[in-house]
Amino acid sequence: MANRSYRSGPQFHGNMDMLAHTHSVRVAGRYPREAGWALGRDLHGVPRLFDHVMMRDRRLLTAPLLMFLGDFGSGKTTLGMRMLTHAFMMSVRGGQRARIAADSTKRSGNIPEWDPFVAEFGERTVDLAADFKDGINILDKKLPLRPQDHLRNLSELMQDDGAALSPAAEHILRVGLHDEFKKEKPHVKSLNSFFSTVDINLISTIVNELALLNEGVIPRLSEADIVNIGNELFFRLANLMNGKTGEVLGGHGSLADAMTRRVVSFDYTQLDPDAIAPVQSFIWRVKTAGIRYGDNDYFCDAELYDESYESWDSMAFALGMRGRTKKLRGTGSLLIFISQHISDYLAISGPQGLIAQNMLRDVGAWAIAQHETVHLPYIIEYCGVSPHIAQMIPRLKPGQFLMKIGSQQPFVFDYELTEMYRRMSDTDAATRKNLERM
């Protein structure tokens, strides 16, 4: 039997042939012949590449966001593995070494879904539950974070389930963090240790400093005000430390080494569901800060987030994602999201729902696999696909995708499932089910 993608049965004809004749942008000029990451072949066997750097330079790609959509078992994860593998191998061929990362909230039995992928590169998945049994130190001085970054992290984590901190309470937190960073230590204290130092005595010692601030923002404080601010800070920190997030982010473990590997996959599946979004958004903030301060060890050429839409219910996650996409514009990095349907994002309520919907409208390219007809109106609205073309989407086979890049004409492609990609996909239950049919 021919080893040719997931496809079985006859090829598409008629209207589908129209898509096979549309062409993506050709590589030319200062770009090498090998530029671009392999997508697969269109319906006439023509190889298709995705070169986000070239398309960004030519203003054909508005944002560094690529989203895979499709029903369960349509081949989205395997396509992501294929693209990241090709990105890494092409960089090695060009005398460089790309850094790629994948975040996953899926497992197959006891095995993280992306474990075979990173194993191909001699690495292993970072299990955030098993590898950091005593928790992660979010105040780790090895990370490319400054006091203001730690303040932003703590403030957003503490307000995730409530209102923002008062200006006075946030200022007290800032002073405490600056005091910690003045100490010459390889690591600042863990959140547990820091929590014990933020007490009424600290609040009392800086009351004079608070009084010198702009009175329109923070007026002079009475003793009762100081107690109220202290109670507010205690309440927020106690909720953070005593909750599921505190169990994960209140330890002494350092993420720095894991985050700077050439190929890394973070597995969140063994964490408490309430802790996944805050931990994921914290890791994003660390990478974003690394780019902001010019630390290339934290730059990723490509990052993939597999089925992370559920985390958008967290405001910390939504804010972290919004900040990350803004910072990555113009850097040459690409974010790839894998989800099933656009409606998953539209169902998110509150301010974070608005952030998620704005992100959808900012996506620069879409790889759309098979969908049921009920989802087509959302694809037409958000992906810029015409109703005529959208009618073809339910007819796509597993492993086939409709690619829409910016304002260009869409095209259909599928990919060859070589032995290496079969090994990588072995932990994907949906993919394995498709392979059994072949």
Description of the structure:
This protein is of the alpha/beta class and 438 residues long. It has two domains: 15-132 and 256-437, 3-Layer(aba) Sandwich (Rossmann fold); 147-249, no CATH class. It has helices spanning 15-20, 52-57, 76-93, 115-119, 147-158, 167-182, 191-197, 200-205, 207-211, 223-242, 244-249, 256-259, 273-292, 315-328, 343-346, 350-362, 376-383, 387-390, 419-424, 429-437; strands at residues 37-42, 47-50, 65-69, 100-104, 107-108, 111-112, 126-127, 263-267, 302-306, 334-339, 365-368, 400-405, 411-414. The strands form two sheets. The chain has an eleven-stranded mixed beta sheet with strand order 2-1-13-12-11-3-10-9-4-8-7. The longest helix is centred in the middle third of the chain and has 20 residues, at 223-242. The relative contact order is 0.20. The model is unreliable at 1-34 and 433-438 (pLDDT under 50).
